[in-house]
Design goal:
Strand order of the largest sheet: 1-3-2
Number of helices: 4
CATH architecture of the largest domain: Roll
Helix content: 25-40%
Oligomer: single chain
Number of strands: 5
CATH superfamily of the largest domain: RNA-binding S4 domain
Length: 131
């Protein structure tokens, strides 16, 4: 079992959203599937996808080759709250500009575009490998 302790950064976040942050390259319904099948548990017990996480809660995942391959070792630069094929909802950190400025600093739009392009590249590569 893989265990993760909820920190202040993820306090009051939905369980499904937290799992998507751990596995950003996973298909959109994968986190919900883990929860529904009992492979993802909250404090050792089954939980609903919309359960809110609290500080010091423990999320455990049943270890499998697929889940392990989808996990990231560091948090993604974007704090993704929801994603499907049409919408990407991000929790914008304070101080990060929304759009590019004359100073060419980091901004949310460029980070979002880079994320989308990277995830589409991964999906395309996986489709090419498994026709």
């Amino acid at each position: 079992m893989l265990s993760y302790e909820i920190t202040q950064q993820d306090h009051c976040r939905r369980l499904e959203s937290y799992l998507r942050t751990l596995m950003p390259a996973a298909p959109p319904g994968y986190a919900r599937k883990l929860i529904k099948n009992g492979a993802a548990r909250l404090n050792g017990a089954p939980a609903a996808a919309d359960t809110l996480l609290a500080l010091c809660d423990t999320v455990t995942l049943k270890e499998s080759a697929v889940t392990t391959a989808l996990l990231v070792h560091s948090r993604p630069t974007l704090d993704i709250l929801y994603e499907d094929s049409l919408i990407l909802i991000v929790n914008k950190p304070p101080g990060l500009p929304m759009h590019r400025t004359a100073e060419c600093e980091d901004n949310l739009v460029d980070a979002g575009q880079a994320y989308i392009l990277h995830s589409r590249f991964i999906v395309t590569r996986q489709a090419e490998q498994h026709p």
